[in-house]
Design goal:
single chain, 601 residues, mainly alpha, 21 helices, 78% helix, 0% strand
């Protein structure tokens, strides 16, 4: 009896477990790829065990699972392929950008070197025409570059680049044609004083327009295009800046050699024809490259636009906007966080301790041969290239702000040798001597070259190169730190200036650079003789040191100096930030409560 009851209980338990197994099998068969949640009460209509068994036997379930896995793997591979394609496109664009920069820099450096000789050839009795051109060029930069930058901000990227490119090269070509006619009919033109003066004025006006367009093109490409192409990658942006500077320095070293050979073995008229042909070919090539880069990189088409209220205000005050555009640009610059870094760069332009016309003239007056001076210019270019190639590695180790401070420190240290050269043997520094005496000596000669030959070519002339050699050595080595500082400040401006005002800030920065260059010309006008050149060296050293202090103050405010600790967020702050991001992303509080203060950690 008891055994019969026990068997019946066993049969009931077996049937119940069998029913549970069937139910579980049917539920699992509905979607075998999904894990069931025991708390889930919504169960769809199950299929029969027989159908599931048949699907397993036929491989249908396995095929569907494999398909899901293949789709997931396919999505990952598609993303990787897309990334590779984007990298390949970026690489192609970068090389086209480098080629465009090479053509631009080579043309600019050739014209800069040749045009100075053209002006001196037109008026070779003194340097007044060159001085007037330098003064007018820097004045135009100060007054107009900010407005040009604002115009760039208002235009589409490709439109602005095209217009500036055409203006720059067209002005150079027109100048070459005028100069070729002048050299061809030189004697007849000089007999007509009015025509001679008119030609001088026209040549200078077109040269100033070309210079303004060149600066505008630099703002478009170096301050905006490459920042957009870098797409927020600071390391990539540093590499782009370094390579751009390297290309420019190589052209600075190579172009004067080519121009010198042309001047030495041909005539001035032939040089003008060669330059006109080069600018025509270069304009077509650069125009094509800019269009291809703009087409292949769609992000360049996306430029932040003005708000509707700003557009309406601009339409209402169109005339006042044109008048006060420069003033507003200067206000934006001096209230921006990058002000001190930009001022540090601008103060570097007030110096005679660079390889420009002033330094070359002083070296020639100290009896340095022209061929030696040419070699030294090339060596200084290589030092600049070394600095530009060192910058990306230095920035990756120290950061952009500390790299700028290091570059400024190297620059100031090397220029200290230039200050010491004032009192070394062979220095002509003697400010108490009558400054008119050297001028009187030169008045007895027909040209500056005659004065140099009288001073350096005399049989009893004892030339001591200790002073001028020390000065030139200091200038050459200082180029290494100069380009590190220059690239650092350039990247600071690129990273910290909003896209909508990059043109304005870049225009004001170029205007400040020109203002300091203009101050240099004024000091040279006041102290034009070699016995007072030491005062110009001291003034230059003071201005460069002030620029280093401005850069250091910017790094100090950013807490980037070596002795400063950067502000790091606490654990609570990090949790708060992540919570806020999740709230913004999901539209509700992750903790189920809103505005309850910081999350407890």
């Amino acid at each position: 009896m008891e055994n019969g009851q026990h068997n019946r209980r066993r049969r009931r338990r077996g049937s119940a477990s069998s029913s549970d197994g069937e139910a579980e099998t049917m539920i699992t068969a509905e979607n075998p790829a999904v894990n069931l949640d025991k708390t889930n009460t919504a169960v769809t209509t199950p299929i029969k065990n027989k159908e599931y068994d048949e699907s397993v036997e036929n491989g249908t379930v396995i095929d569907e699972t494999a398909k899901l896995t293949a789709d997931a793997n396919g999505g990952n591979s598609a993303a990787e392929n897309k990334k590779k394609e984007n990298d390949e496109v970026t690489t192609q664009i970068v090389w086209k950008l480098y080629l465009s920069r090479l053509l631009t820099a080579l043309g600019d450096r050739l014209w800069m070197f040749a045009f100075g000789l053209f002006l001196f050839k037109m008026h070779n009795k003194d340097l007044r025409l060159l001085a007037f051109y330098g003064f007018a060029m820097n004045t135009s930069n100060i007054l107009l570059l900010s407005a040009i930058g604002k115009w760039i901000d208002d235009k589409k990227r490709l439109t602005a680049a095209r217009i500036l490119l055409i203006i720059q090269n067209t002005c150079v070509i027109i100048n070459c044609i005028i100069l070729a006619l002048f050299f061809l009919y030189n004697e007849d033109i000089q007999e007509r004083i009015v025509l001679y003066r008119v030609l001088e004025a026209i040549v200078i006006v077109f040269a100033i327009l070309s210079n303004l367009a060149s600066n505008g093109s630099q703002i478009v490409v170096e301050k905006d295009w490459i920042v957009c192409i870098a797409n927020g990658d600071d390391n990539f942006l540093a590499i782009l800046n370094s390579n751009f500077r390297t290309i420019d320095l190589c052209c600075l070293t190579f172009a004067p050699v080519v121009a010198g050979l042309l001047f030495s073995y041909t005539s001035y008229m032939v040089v003008t024809v060669v330059l006109a042909a080069w600018n025509l070919i270069s304009m077509v090539a650069e125009y094509t490259l800019l269009f291809i880069i703009y087409r292949d990189y769609p992000q360049l088409k996306e430029k932040p636009e003005l708000e509707e209220e700003e557009k309406k205000q601009k339409k209402k005050n169109w005339v006042m906007d044109k008048i006060t555009g420069s003033a507003l640009g200067w206000k934006k610059y001096f209230t921006h966080t990058v002000r001190n870094a930009g001022l540090g760069l601008a103060f570097l332009y007030m110096t005679v301790l660079g390889f420009d016309n002033i330094t070359w003239a002083y070296a020639l007056l100290q009896c340095v041969p022209e061929w030696v001076l040419g070699i030294l210019v090339a060596v200084s270019g290589f030092c600049g290239v070394a600095g530009s190639r060192t910058y990306p590695h230095l920035r990756s180790k120290l950061g952009v702000e500390r790299s700028g401070v290091v570059g400024m420190s190297i620059l100031v240290f090397c220029l200290t040798f230039c200050v010491l050269s004032i009192w070394l043997p062979g220095s002509p520094f003697d400010p108490l001597t009558d400054s008119l005496q050297p001028h009187a000596n030169m008045a007895n000669s027909t040209a500056t070259q005659d004065y140099v030959e009288q001073k350096c070519g005399a049989a009893d002339a004892a030339v001591d190169f200790v002073s001028v050699g020390t000065m030139l050595a200091g200038i050459i080595i200082a180029r290494f730190g100069l380009w590190i500082a220059d690239l650092s400040i350039t990247q600071i401006l690129q990273e910290n200036v909003q896209p909508r005002i990059r043109g304005v800030i870049g225009g004001v920065q170029n205007s400040l650079n020109s203002a300091m260059d203009l101050v240099k010309f004024i000091f040279v006008f006041i102290l034009p003789h070699e016995n007072t050149f030491g005062i110009l060296i001291l003034l230059s050293y003071c201005f460069v040191s002030t620029g280093a202090l401005f850069m250091t103050s910017y790094a100090y405010k950013k807490r980037k100096l070596c002795f400063q600790k950067e502000n790091t967020p606490t654990a609570v702050q990090e949790t708060d930030d992540s919570s806020e991001k999740m709230v913004k992303k999901n539209g509700h509080s992750t903790s189920g409560k809103e505005n309850n203060g910081p999350v407890n950690v």
